[in-house]
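User: Need the bound-state model for fructose -6-phosphate:
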Amino acid sequence: MNITITKNYSELSVKAAELFYKKIKAKPSIHLGLATGKTPLGMYEILRKKMKTDGLPTDKLKVFNLDEYVGLSKNSSKSFYTYMKKQLYEPLGLKERQYYIPNGEAKDLEKECLRYEQMIDQFGIDLQLLGVGRNGHIGFNEPGTPFDSLTHVVKLKESTRKVNASFFGDESLVPTRAITMGIQSILKAKEIVVIASGEEKARALYEFVHGKMTEEWPITALKNHSNVTVICDQKSARFLKRKEGVSHD
Ligand code: F6R
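Assistant: Bound-state model below.
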């Protein structure tokens, strides 16, 4: 595991954007796995600007998303589809055949989960971006999710709905279910980058780096993966012990 600790959120965003930019430049047909939430907003802004300024080709790129709310219209301003459309799909000029996100409006949700998992298997994800929840969730895989889980429907924890209420204005408006790539689906990616910012993520990062593998902290499943990079700011890294392989920028 490679850990880079940055001074603050802005530097974290620059570092993460640089990493993704380099990978896209080196392989324009790269398959990216992407996350939503607050943490990637800074890196997405830098990435889309730099790709545009430098004229990086995007016609061979494919992007896959971790999750989507169930029961929310795709075109709702709160859907992850709309988030991605605003952050990357439209600014990068991606065509519909280039982006993939679970369909939370599907009539048969089980069938949709199967379809999404098969697609991940068919295309394969080269580089997966992950944020982490305060409770250690990755995607919407909440504590207790089996490590061998594939794409599935999940009932969101009250704590997660509370945190995500900031996007909805009120907790009661946050959907109660989502479709998420499972932990096993995430582990299929060739390379994984975790980004974390702020004190509220410090415990989850501590469990990931220094704790034991346990389904109570879903992020600890990544200990099993051979190519994981963590980019985190000082606040979220406050419980991490200094050791080799940890670079402080
Ligand atoms: C988002 C996702 C979630 C978030 C996590 C952190 O697609 O799957 O796991 O990455 O909840 O969210 P933020 O970045 O808002 O703290």
